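Follow-up to my post from last week.
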Amino acid sequence: MEASAQTVSIDSQSAGLLEKLRHDFGDRILAEQATCGGMPTVWVDRQQLVALLRTLRDETNPRFEMLFDITAIDERLRVHREDQPDSEFTVVYHLMSFSGNCDFRIKVPLMDADLNIPSIIGLWPAANWYERETWDMFGINFDGHPNLYRIVLPPTWKGHALRKEHPARATEMEPFSLEDEAAEYEQQALLFKPEEWGMKRESDNSEFMFLNLGPNHPSVHGAFRIAVQLDGEILVDAVPDIGYHHRGAEKMGERQSWHTYIPYTDRIDYLGGVMNNLPYVMAVEKMAGIQVPERVKTIRVMLVEMFRICSHLLFYGTFAQDVGQLSPIFYMFVERERIFNIIESICGARMHPGWFRIGGVAQDLPEGWDVRVKELLDFIPPRIDEYDKMVMENGILKRRTQGVGCYNTQQAFDWGVTGAGLRATGLEWDFRKDRPYSGYENFEFDVPIAVNGDCYDRCAIRVEEMRQSLRIIKQCVDNMPSGDYKADHPLTTPPRKEKTMQDIETLINHFLSVSWGPVIPPNEVTMAIEGTKGINSYYLVSDGNTTSYRTRIRTPSFAHLQMIPEISRGFMVADLIAIIASIDFVMADVDR
Amino acid sequence: MSLEIGSPLTIGLILLVVIGTAAMLITVERRLLGFWQERLGPNRVGWFGSLQVVADMIKIFTKEDWIPPFADKFSFVIAPGIIMSAVLLSFAVIPFAPDIGVIDSNIGVLFVLAMASLGAYSVMLGGLSSDNKYALLGSLRAAAQMVSYEVFMGISLLGVVALTGSFNMREIVEAQTDGWYIIPQFIGFVIFLIAGVAESHRLPFDIPEAEQEICAGYHTEYSGMKFGMFFVAEYIGLVLISSLITVLFFGGWLGPSFLPPIIWFFVKASAFIGFFILMRAAVPRPRYDQLMSYGWLFLLPLSLVNLLVTGVIILSTQ
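User reply:
Got it. Predicted complex:
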């Protein structure tokens, strides 16, 4: 491959940080791995893990406030492992610093015979679900975890799905059947047992009611269950139960080619459409070393912002609906319809276009696209102003949502909250502003923030974000660069066809790229974007093959749902609904 | 047989019209909501969807009428019957026109209030007998809400009663010949309007059946015609509240003589029905405790002051 991945040199801030760690930990750091993207990656033994994480959280400069992700890699079949310690399973911790605007990756090697690692719930409560998921998927045992149960897969599942030996296709398994007995067994397994979660059935003066909210409930936005412990109508505690929407998206990443995985990403945050393609294709492009033309970047930004508006409109409408206002959602679907019409004329599909490609987009913009987008830009703003009067200024809605479900910035860090939920606490931090990608540095827009961190503020921020998105789209229309819609690079998929019939080399390359798919050079990269619901990131591991070796999708909603019990204790059932509505999640984004 | 107060023909016609209107409201409400919400609403069955009500009726009559095995059968079955009869009985004292009505009762207003109280039992029984947690929450909310709002509803009417000097609805209408009570009793009207919505538990006060919170509340477990009875009773309740507002505050059948009295009554009542539907389209739902404190801390004192002031004015003008 002519364009092998450039391992971007680490910036000076991270270099200083690594220097301090080398000094503090000495040879207890097993290795430093260079990855593309420049994220410092350090291997450490599991005995040192907690100490290292605590140092990074409390002492280093910059401090890493947020545990962004925990996941694992089954390394047993991986070929390219230069400068990495020997391991059969690797647990990967991804920390994020908002004060220093940087990331840090820590890897812990484990052997199949002894898959134990200390739990870090004591450091970050957000680790709870991430550790459960890692146990669920890889069978890695987190010592000290209070509820190491299955989270994404059903409680009756056998095996650990992201291990390489676990089958990925239905054809590799016995045909599915569900006998009555088995169905009964599965149903019994879903029964909520308060004792498992350390809940009491009664207090000194009252008996609690355990209400099973979901998995099929009008306000849980998909298949999602919360078992709530009620004292009258006051919520004492809650246990969110996810996994009903799990479709093995990460497992599919290991069997689809780099190119054919793109449509699967659309369905992760199914309201985000091509927004999901973006971090994925950017990650692959990074590893492949593709620089996309300016026109591609601008087209991508325009479509992504359209989807942001669509998603926020749906949020806005359902938010109003969940506090009992029936009409706004219907008005908002009118704008969504207009936007989808434009998206359809550009991409050919509406909600899930799967339109971004490695190295570009599928097609150039159609003739006359700008006329329709300009019409849209005139159509939407007065309507959003009207919704302000209808929804945001409504007294009943204010009383229902202000002061409900509050959290502060520190809590947001502890629980891994990103996106509008984080900005509602007063932190001005937007990926598009602070770490511009895909040409966002060229756009003028503001990052709205609020101070109270309650349901109302989370909604108000999204409303303002729609206005900012319109500003960005306007700039896209006014300044759309000319040029190509696809990068001129051998790994661009599908490749440019002009030269295929001119010489045999290009023909062969084209043939292989289309039939097998592109071969991406071995590397690792994390690419994150400001998604519709928070930070959406793809952590891809390439082993120099036509498919990804490991695809990790870190979605914002997963972390946000975990926080529900924390912010809803002591409120009423009706408030819980408002809190759930204000989080803005879709279950596909949680369960993947 | 002739059309006079209490004749079988009149009673039959009133029953038919009331139930017919309630059934039609299912379609009318959906069409109106559609109109106000920038969408079409049901427009496929019949001319502009006018036969939708027939389709809905066929559906609801032929659906499986299932009684959950864990429910308390007796109360589960009678609960929808109670509310249906309570709201229908209330129409007995409504004076539709000078010569149209079921009875001419001296305790008309009290009778309506008594029937409204019976309706609360239906909702409570339905929720409790279902043995479902959502239904339980719904009926708890319903009990608290309906019992509280009955209080303000009663007090808000007393101003009108005091002005007329009678509980008889016909006399109340006739007393408004010189001017509708909406003017002297505006506060009473507003409180009655709010309490009326709360009594018929429609949005924004549909807290006992708040879909987004507790599924369908007290009627979660109901299906088929039993659900249909709750559903239709809600619409009859809507017609009832609109009729009461018309009678008590807007002069009932009174109006310029180019239209017959009964038409005036229908016009006024329909306007309020439309208003209630519009309210459903426009207003969000307060929280249960907010509704209660609003009632006890704001509406109750206000209605008492209204009664007091009315009394003082009556005494001072005599």
